[in-house]
Amino acid sequence: MTGKPRILIARAISPEVVQRLEQHFEVESNQDDVVWSPQELVRKLQGKDGMLATGLQAIDAALLAACPQLKIVANMTVGYNNFDVPAMTAAGVQGTNAPDVLTETTADFGFALLMATARRISESEHYLRAGKWKDWRYDLFAGAEVHGSTLGILGMGRIGQGIARRGAHGFGMKVIYHNRSRLSPELEAECKARYVSKDELLASADHLVLVLPFTPENRHAIAAAELAKMKPTATLINIARGGIVDDAALAGALREQRIAAAGLDVFEGEPAVHPDLLAVPNVVLTPHIASATRGTRLAMADLAASNLIAFFEGRGALTPVNTPAG
Question: Which is the catalytic residue, given 11, 166, 207, 241?
């Protein structure tokens, strides 16, 4: 025994981050990227003081009770809906996330998904690959305008603000937003964004981008009633979390063309995708890759590692999401 704290890395991460952690800890690393069951995760955590998680591993009361030595779980994602925060706090377990490092990359992707959805890029590529393109037509895959249109943003944190800046400054879009709390006048001016009610947002947006955190209150924030308030020409983009949209209701709205199109990077029950979404042509589907650039994924894992190192060196977590009891 070296006396170093023992940590578990739950999924494969950048090798250089594993090497960095090995300088500070006894490390068990899942570089084979095996997806463990909850029972297997509990078994792997026996005797471990800390864990680097990818945001997919559920840290709940049952796991905490079975792993009394665990002191910290560091997510390499900004979201932490895999954490039962009250249970972790009561058990004296620190939770951390990885804000800021993925903001610009995710905003880039959100805008890319908006563009692909508005201009029907996936739908037209499938058409071309199937050998169906025989001639030019004035209305062949005619999509929606982006430049000068109205960009609606639901959830106006760092990523939402990044999308607003791209739309307003790069594409001359009129930006409206709804958020739990209104931005400062200075931030609104920087983003060229106007605060509106949720109903006005739904009714006015040509392109509605969802960037709000998943909470029990936000589950199905966009469901049948909300979809009915949107323009039939509107597009809906979800880069937030699965479960914020009622995927079954969305599939019905797309099938019946009650909205024009959708772009989805996240899904309820992912990696499973609602079969009705797979059956409609007017949706762009991507496998939860909004933060997936090499540099950003490295920075996410590196921040999780920094949280673990700072915590065990007694300096406190850098980006805590709770204040543990005791």
Answer: 241
